[in-house]
Design brief:
mainly alpha, binds zinc ion
């Protein structure tokens, strides 16, 4: 008999401030690489590209900070809503609702059945609770 596949850690619905954070980091990498190219070739076109990209990078960082602040504010002001967003049950309030699908939690760990927590505590079984693939218990 093959053992059941080990379920992953509890997943999260990533907020777009994280995507912007990635964009910001990639922008910084691009600037560093361009700097290196400029130091070797000293072309004016590259210098122009560099200043253009530096402006865009700054704008992306500003958007990232704004989005992150909104997310942190939500976690402080509406912790319940924040938890549902992190769990992927509802869309983030500052993101597009259109086409939203609740996150599949089939691979999420259950506190009781995967982590062996005591049912007597406040833990609840989350097996078969996937909003996309609801099964009857
Ligand atoms: Zn599922
Ligand atoms: Zn369970």
């Amino acid at each position: 008999m093959t053992p059941l596949p080990k379920r992953k850690i509890i997943g999260v619905q990533v907020h777009h401030s994280q995507d912007l954070s990635n964009a910001s980091a990639y922008g910084a990498n691009m600037l560093t690489a361009l700097e290196a190219a400029i130091s070797k070739s000293d072309k004016q076109e590259l210098k122009d590209l560099y200043s253009m990209l530096a402006r865009y990078s700054k704008q992306i960082s500003e958007h990232q900070r704004k989005a992150q602040t909104q997310m942190r504010t939500l976690s402080l002001v509406h912790p319940e809503t924040f938890k549902q967003c992190v769990d992927g049950r509802i869309p983030w309030p500052d993101e597009t609702e259109e086409g939203f699908e609740a996150r599949c939690t089939c691979n999420d760990q259950c506190a009781i059945h995967d982590l062996g927590k005591d049912q007597e505590d406040f833990w609840i079984c989350t097996c078969g609770e996937c909003p996309q693939h609801v099964k009857s218990k």
